[in-house]
Amino acid sequence: MLELRKVNVEDWDFILKIRNEEKYRMYFYEQKKISKEEHYEYLKKMSTNSNFFNWIICYDSKDAGYIRILNEDISIMMDLEFNGKGLGTKALKLVENKARENGIKKLVGKPLIAYSIESALDSKLFDHVIVSTEDKEISKISKKYGAEVPFVR
Would you give the DSSP letter of residue 2? Predict the structure, then answer.
C-alpha cells in the first residue's frame, strides 16, 4: 500500500541520504554532497515557510521516498531500493490531493535535468545538447525536453 506521511524531524536523515545519492545530486545546482548541518538548517528554515509542504512516501510501511512542494514547484526523490517500480508516479497522484487540501491550485513540476537541458538550448552556445545516461527514464525525459540521447549505456 502506498501512502504519504507528513515529514517530521526524525525523517530528516532519510531525506539527506536520498538527496546525497549521486543519481539525484547530479541534477541539483549544488552537486556536492551536503552536510547534515546544511540539510538540517535548510529544513528548519523551510518549516517556517507557508509555501513549503513535504511528505515521506511510504510503501508497505517502509520509507520509500520524499516529495515536496515549494511554492508551485514539486520535486520527488525515491530511495534507490524503490526506483523503477512506478511508486513515484503513483505518489504524484496522491500529492495532488494533498496540494488541494493545502489550497494549492497549480503545480509546476519538471524533472531537474529539464532545467539544464533548457538552459543549454536557450543559451544558443551549443548546436546540440547530448545526454549520456544509463537510465531509460532520464533518456525519455531528456528527449522530451529537446536533448539528443544517441544511446542508453
Answer: E
The phi-psi region of residue 57 (left if phi > 0; otherwise alpha if psi is between -120 and 50; otherwise beta) is beta
Torsion from C-alpha of 10, 58, 29, 127, nearest 10 degrees: 170
Which range (37-41, 47-51, 97-101, 136-140) has the least confidence?
A: 97-101
Nearest to 69 by CA among 127, 115, 109: 109
C-alpha dihedral sign at 115, 116, 119, 124 = negative
Cα separation, 132 vs 149, in Å, equals 6
* pTM for the whole structure: 0.69
Helical pair 136-144 and 112-123, crossing angle rounded to 10 deg: 40
Of 37-51, 79-93, 99-113, give the lowest mean pLDDT range: 99-113
The dihedrals phi and psi of 112, each to the nearest 5 degrees, come to -60, -35
User: Where would I find the H helices in the chain?
Assistant: 12-19, 22-25, 36-46, 87-101, 112-123, 136-144
| 149 burial level (CB within 10 Å; 0-12, 13-18, 19+) | middle
